[in-house]
TrEMBL record:
This is Aromatic ring-hydroxylating dioxygenase subunit alpha. Residues 6-110 form the Rieske domain. Gene3D superfamilies: Naphthalene 1,2-dioxygenase Alpha Subunit, Chain A, domain 1 (3.90.380.10), Rieske [2Fe-2S] iron-sulphur domain (2.102.10.10). It comes from Komarekiella delphini-convector SJRDD-AB1. GO terms for molecular function: 2 iron, 2 sulfur cluster binding; dioxygenase activity; metal ion binding; monooxygenase activity; oxidoreductase activity, acting on paired donors, with incorporation or reduction of molecular oxygen. Keywords: 2Fe-2S, Dioxygenase, Iron, Iron-sulfur, Metal-binding, Oxidoreductase. InterPro entries: Cholesterol_7-desaturase, Rieske_2Fe-2S, Rieske_2Fe-2S_sf, VanA_C_cat. SUPFAM superfamilies: Bet v1-like, ISP domain. The lineage of its organism: Bacteria, Bacillati, Cyanobacteriota, Cyanophyceae, Nostocales. It comes from the Bacteria. Pfam families: Rieske, VanA_C.
Amino acid sequence: MLKNFWYACEFSAAVSNKPKQIVMLNQRFVLYRNSQGQVVALKNQCSHRGAALSMGWLEDDCIRCPYHGWKFQSDGQCIEIPSNEPGKPIPTKATINSYSVQEKYGFIWLFYGDLLEEERPPIPPLPEYEDSTMHPIYLEYEMKANYTRVIENALDPAHLYAVHANSFGAGFAQDPTVEDYIVQDEDWGISTKITYKNYTKPKNGVFKSFFRPARTQLNATTSFYLPNITKIESDFGRGKMINYAVHIPVDDNTTISKRIQFRNFFTYSWADSLFVKFHHKVGLEDRVVTESQYPKFIPDMLTEVHVPADALTLAYRRLRHKYLSLGWGLKLNQSESKNSNQEQTRLSYASLKK
């Protein structure tokens, strides 16, 4: 897991004036909106006896602990302890961590790290959010897998014909070849363009109505933005679909993918449920294989076999290793710490280029 980045931790619509717990990066946070509608993010752990503040209540834009009623401001400072006699000073350690937040592109973004504001990497652009021709749907699902494996699954171009044979990938079986492609470096990320040939009509689902039975061509642009965002843009001639996914590392073995899918065809709102249903079907296909992978963490590069189609996932590993080497890794437990050390000491850049 990486620090010093903005993490999209929840959809904006899911945060209200009722405290809400968010589990991310092996930690618990509490989010709520104050009377001006601004989002506040605090550590979800009272400094007194560790109770979850998300079980408490709001009062004067502050949050009350549900256990002993300690009152905390939005900056984490405790300003009232009901059990104290009047005039009794509040202990200097009676504070909790507070976090910078932004609300953008339909998400609440939380900065986790120790960089000064002017040094922080930017929130990546999601231009389609402002494009009135692109119709969005929102969904999420959970995988019992490490987030690095989930990200690699999203970036992998070679699994479509096998994993998604019963959905949109049916036509790839005729020619599952992935032609050599070039990975481009982006600001805080990577991207590539791949053309899939001999793409035929899917077996079922909403896509069946939008692909010709005869052979056609699918142009796909796949991007990754640090620390955990994937974007897949698919242009199949008769329409365009763009899938953003924020892969939230809940803990070492749990990932929640929060997604916005944009489309410029069949944009009726009543059709959204069809696309959500189909998206979940595709997600379940990915989940089955991703949860089966071992080891759960991305292993040392030298212990796996690589082929040319892996160029994008290997570029992701190099990029991640770059920031681990800068000390931006979160060593929250032994397994993550051990894995990070292995990557830093044994990664072979030569092997990644083969």
